[in-house]
Amino acid sequence: MPKTGTTSIQRYFHLNRDATRAGGIAYPNMPGANQNAFLEAQFRRPRGLSDERLIRRGQGGFVERRDEMRAAFVSEMNAAADEGLDGLLSAETGSAMQRAGVAELHELMSMFDKVVTLAFVRPPRSWRGSKCQQGLKDGGTMADFLTSVPAALYRGSIEPHDKVSPNVRLAVFHPSRMKDGCVLQTLLSMMDGERPAFANARAGRSNESMSMTGAKFFSMINGAQKAGALPADLPDALRRALGEGLMGDYLKAVFAEPRFIRPPNAMMRVLIPMPGPKFRLPVEVEAAAIKAEGDEIAWICDRLGEDLTAFDSDTDTPLPTLASFDRFDDEEVAAIVTTIETMNATITDPIEALLARGRKGKRRRVERYLNENGIEAPAENDSKPKAKARPAGRDAEAPAPQPGDRAAFREARRARMMERRAAAVEAKRAARRGDKAAE
């Protein structure tokens, strides 16, 4: 599930790919450490909404090259299975997949003898707070969470996997349950077999938590994006800081756009750790989440065989009100101004370059992954797909789609690819059966 140390795990395997492979695990060499975009493009439904989210995040390459990405991934995992390695796919999106998507993923991984789902489960109050913070990073305001409630919906995250496979293993995400105090070691202990090559492996802590001050700041600038202007009642010192340097350039750029544009990663790395008191959900949002959860907590406690709420802390501490998120005291203003000044002084690239870099960089990484797995990049101008010579008889029963009909073209190409892939998988299985018979 999200917000359970997955970033630390993913970064370890991504940065130590060769050592991981030598230890018997093949971690896909996809763009970035997190395979969320791949799973979302391939298995989330309805596809239109998933595609829209990916494009909005600058990950449109996973949509445009969907079929090629799948082929490259299958090629990489086939090679791993042939070497006797275990494949490991890590993505929080796995907890948002429906049963059909889970079944499709299992079928895709049929090159391995067994598919196991490993998941960490975070206590409900802790999870609500982390989910809310992620929503703020993705453009939400605190008021949005009264309607888009950060409820801990465990059943919908886990049950689709339970219905597809008996091999679903859960662990409570809490310091008292971490093997050797490390989330990576805990994950490894959930896998089959001994893994001595990882005895000394540790995943560095990836702390992306916001302070209360940071949460109020992001809620405010996200709301300003939607309104196209800063709130009228901001303190003067804060208003001046928001209009200067890189921060001012960013706000001017996004106010002119009809859709939300997240601050570039370079800015986020400075803004997220903004100092301030510990973040707490507003009491109104907490109440709405508890109401929306219904019997979810009872379900997960029964599924785990223990009381998950016992791992929550600070349950007696008073919560702030929603109205308090619209006000900034002197200490909060000073913390925000200092953070913005630091960012303006340390990041020298213009905002146009930072925004363009995020879009182009993700697309280049997609193409690099495809090239590494033998998938050719498209021509510079592929708006009009060119006809290719075909062996006699292939697709004779279906007329070729018109070049202008890109949706039909892609669907036909996908169908052909799936047919060829199915034939290759069947041939490989037949060869394995033949080898066993010979033995």
Structure description:
With 439 residues, the protein is mainly alpha-helical. It folds into 3 domains: 6-198, no CATH class; 212-280 and 319-356, no CATH class; 392-439. The protein is 53% helix and 3% strand. The chain has helices spanning 6-15, 17-22, 36-43, 47-56, 61-64, 66-82, 99-108, 124-137, 154-164, 183-190, 212-227, 236-242, 245-255, 265-271, 283-293, 296-304, 330-346, 351-372, 406-438, and strands spanning 25-26, 86-87, 117-121, 168-172. The strands form 2 sheets. Strands 1-2 form a two-stranded parallel ribbon. The model is unreliable at 380-407 (pLDDT under 50).
Runs in which pLDDT lies below 50 for 5 or more consecutive residues are 380-407
Query: Span from first to last CA?
Result: 43 Å
Determine the structural class based on helices, strands and strand pairing: mainly alpha
Q: What is the makeup of the main sheet?
A: 2 strands, parallel
Order of helices and strands: HHEHHHHEHEHHEHHHHHHHHHH
Provide mean pLDDT, rounded: 86
Question: Counting H and I runs of at least 4 residues, what is the number of helices?
Answer: 19
Number of strands: 4
Helix content: 40-55%
Query: What global shape is seen?
Result: globular
Radius of gyration: 24 Å
Residue fraction in strands: under 5%
List the domain count as a whole number: 3
Strand adjacency order, main sheet: 1-2
Structure described in brief:
This protein is 53% helix and 3% strand. The protein has 439 residues and is mainly alpha-helical. The strands form two sheets. The protein has a two-stranded parallel ribbon with strand order 1-2. A two-stranded parallel ribbon has the order 3-4.
